[in-house]
Amino acid sequence: MERTLGTQLRHLLDLLDGAVERKYANMGLAYRARYTPVMRCLIAKEPQSLGEVARCAGITQPGATQTVSLMIENDLIETATSLDARQKLLRLTAAGRAMAGELQNAWAATAKAAESLDRELPMPISEILAAAITALEANSFDERIRDAGRKKL
């Protein structure tokens, strides 16, 4: 049976994230790979609003909301009220800050592993993904599905 695009992407992500999460576990860190975009943004600048974190991380607001909720449960980030009290701001907890150095070491190893994978492929996966994202931002998959349905009729 032929694997569809979605199945292939999920399998690839399982292979990558599984290895990264084992690295965190071997380091004794209670940390999930999905936290990384949010954590990187808050390490670079805090506090930030949820919208700012979503934009910085390149993820959707609902995705950021889910990830932030998990990170709050795991005592990695906390909320604070903005000066004008109109929005909640996110910042690292003491535990999140304490973990930052170890995470950056893990991220450096992950980046080297990704470079190693890219060297083995006919075209670096990072370039393929960037091109796919650009194409989908220009013409969404929703539009492509709709257009494919019209052509079938």
Task: Considering the chains and any ligands shown, give keywords for the structure.
single chain; 153 residues; mainly alpha; Arc Repressor Mutant, subunit A; 3-stranded antiparallel β-sheet; 8% strand; globular
Please specify the SSE layout and strand pairing.
Blueprint (H helix, E strand, L loop, with lengths): L4 H22 L9 H9 L3 E2 H8 L3 H13 L3 E5 L6 E5 L1 H27 L4 H14 L2 H12 L1
Antiparallel strand pairs: 1-3, 2-3
Describe the structure.
The protein has a single domain, classed as Arc Repressor Mutant, subunit A (Orthogonal Bundle), CATH 1.10.10. Strands 1-3-2 form a 3-stranded antiparallel beta sheet. It is globular, with a radius of gyration of 18 Å. By secondary structure, it is mainly alpha-helical. The protein has helices spanning 5-26, 36-44, 50-57, 61-73, 94-120, 125-138, 141-152; strands at 48-49, 77-81, 88-92.
State the distance separating the first and last CA atoms: 26 Å
CATH fold description = Arc Repressor Mutant, subunit A
Residue runs with pLDDT of under 50 for 5 or more positions:
none
Work out the number of β strands.
3
Strand neighbour order, sheet with most strands: 1-3-2
Order of helices and strands: HHEHHEEHHH
Mean pLDDT, all residues: 92
Summary?
With 153 residues, the protein is mainly α. 69% of the residues lie in helices and 8% in strands.
